[in-house]
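Board work, copied verbatim: Regulatory LuxR family protein
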Amino acid sequence: MRLFGRDDRLFGRESECATLDSLIAGARSRHSAALVLRGEPGVGKTALLRYAESQVPEALTIRGVESESGFPYAGLHRLLIPLLPERDRLPPSQRAALEVACGLTEGPSADLFLVSLASLTLLATAPRLCVVDDVQWLDNESARALAFVARRLHAEGVVLLFGLRGDDPGLFAGIPDLIVSGLTRDASIALLSDVVTDDIDLSLAEHIAETTGGNPLALTDLGRELTADQWRGASPLPEPVPIGSRLESHYSARVRGYPPPTRTWLLLAAAGAGSRGEHLLAAARLLGTRPEDAGPAEGDRLVTGSPPVDFRHPLVRSAVYGDAPPAQRRAVHAALAAATIDPAEADRRAWHLASAAAAPDEQVAAELERRAGRAGARGGYAARVTFLNRAAELTPDPAIRAGRQVDAAAAAMTAGAPARALSLLDVVEEAQLAGPVLGSALLTRALATVNTGAPTGLRDAAGLCLEAAAAFGADHVQARRATVQAVDHAIGAERLGSVEETRVAAEAARLAGTDPDGLDGLLLAGYSAFILGGYRTGAPAMRRAVAAVLDPAVPDETLLRRFVVAVNFSNLLWDDASRLVLLDRAESAARRTGALYALDLVHFVSAMTDAALGRLDQADRHDATGQRIRRSIGQTADQEQVWRHPELVAWRAPDGFRDSAAQALQVFEMLHLGAMHSVTVLATAILEIASRDYPAAHDLLLRIVDLGHPRRYAYALPDLVEAALRAGDRPAAARALDDLAVAARSSATPLALGVLARSDALLAAPERAEPFYREAIDLLGATASFGDLARARLLYGEWLRRRRRRRDARDQLTTALEMFEAIQAGAFVERARSELAALGESVRSPVPSQGETALTPQEAAVARLARAGATNGEIAAHLFLSASTVDYHLRKVFRKLGVASRRQLREVFQD
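↓ predict structure ↓
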């Protein structure tokens, strides 16, 4: 296999070739793999990829093209062209998204992750090799989709190879990589000996090998550039020797020596990379050049093909384009724009018009803005940013330019690029911002700052949103949207925000009246009533808001924007039933629409909810699913730390939890994550209660509960009643019970009344306590709060033991122990076991379950869906896997559980 041309070989790459051979061999056994080949320009990545292609007939191969990097899904479309006839086999939602992304049909904006899953499904239809070179020039949507596919490959028999310049992980973080470095000294000298036909001075060859760092492209070029006298050492070498970043200037010097017609043809090919051949030829006629003029460059093997033109290396193209005078570049783009007349090529034509503009031009800017809208409709959010930003640069009117810059920033936020959104906003002239444009800028800045993880992001977000609401003025729809966003941020920041929640609530109350029956109006009314009036006025308003969000007529997109606020209201109301329905509907909506970021948030909130309810097995499932999703979308290990669940971990009472919780509290305080800070305090307090360190729990809970004013952490009041009473602070316990009575009776849900009855029992006189315990168990038994029910039985059993009713105490404590063991709630298990031991009972050691716990989280998820009757294709769509990977996991499930069919699976596999 040749390295760069017919005279060059794969010198010194035995190890890399062996790695590729191993991956390809594994694919023949249905094992999939992905690998990113990284290295500097010219180091040999492309040679290795071509070697891999030579080992697999019918490999799918594309190269990134810089001029196409602004066109959404252009690279992915080229890769999948041979497979598109198979798209009828895709689930309808995946097929529709893929067809829109590839420009095969019109439709709603293509969701990135539905397109990604469709690509995975198509690529898994048959074992194959897929090679994507020059990834740095792929459009953002194609790169993200292919990175998603690479992370989901498992048992399809597909090998996906990427060639990427540089070492920045970027979108490909978490995917295995192979660093392609320079050749060794001996291999470098061998390559020079193969390229140079003259005698070579050995010391000179060693010097060049060292100064080039063994870069094969630099070695090959120098082998043909230097004279025979220089190779013999009779003439001096140019200094510095052109290597690495200097390759471009090396090519520029060579191109400058060509005749003008050759340079014009090369510039046309560089500017029109990715264009259709007839368009290049038409533009060439306008410029007075022709393919035959490429002769000198073809003789030097810098280009091949006329047309399409293939540059030997991306740096050749960069050198040609970058070295041309600006006026000549504009002339070439103008010719390309004139030649590109097909309606299907309107995006490319608009970009050429923009590149041909020497000064601001509103007509061209408006066309770019229209193209941005089309890109967004295809799901090309990154391309929309590029078009809008260029449109802004060409806009003569300052006010219109500011509007387009703000639109570009909002598009960047939609594209998942908050840092870029902020950089675009930073260049906007503040004097031009007013009214709705200012409102949009403030909303985008709030979201972008929070999503970049800036320490002050969440602290200031609610305030920015309120400023946005004021800027929208009489546009009440946008003002309400901004204020609901302020509510969302205020809930997250709590006391650590720069704006008091009462101020947010006052604005919410004002705007709620502009649409009292609409969804956003009801949400604003519920929040303001609760913050300003407490439970008595807030509970009815929050119930109406939750009911509105649960209305089946609410569109998926709206549900996914509003479910977090509605879940928060359900928490405040102890409304476990509505909370679980909301999350179930949100999960279905996120899966149906392919909204993977929203799905990740759903699982995060679901894990918190189930942990609060003591449904730890379900919380584990949601946590594991969220982790898989975050790996799929390329989140780093540092980002992952913010998504940990202290309220879930605390139930398990692992060693070192208190230390890690203390560290987490510092991080949350630094980032102004008030809600996570309070949740961590509450989780630690519950662990202290389970461990019988009541004074510690008492002190922790008083940090988040304001006695006499039951508000956001009223659901921590039952814990404070128990901790304060057992710590000897009966007055605090009594005040907590009074507050709890107000909140619980206003909420009037079985869960609220159940924890109230449990708390009443703790403070009741001995002769009056038992009816309260029985009432608590009856009420809590009708709810989803497994943990509160188990704790009620534990407290009742402890009370019975102190009353010397041994048999009754044993029944309650044994049941509580079994419940705590079922969810592996370590500290509560030990407390229940010690109570039984005090009765003189011989307590058995817990027996580990042999069902789901024998499976990995991925296998358990597959088994659960298979047991429910889902097909492999349906499971694949649900879990964002390929059908081949589902089949692989299902076979392992059958083997581990000792079953041979789905019917048997339903009999032995239980949640």
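Residues 1-9, 847-853 have pLDDT under 50 and may be disordered.
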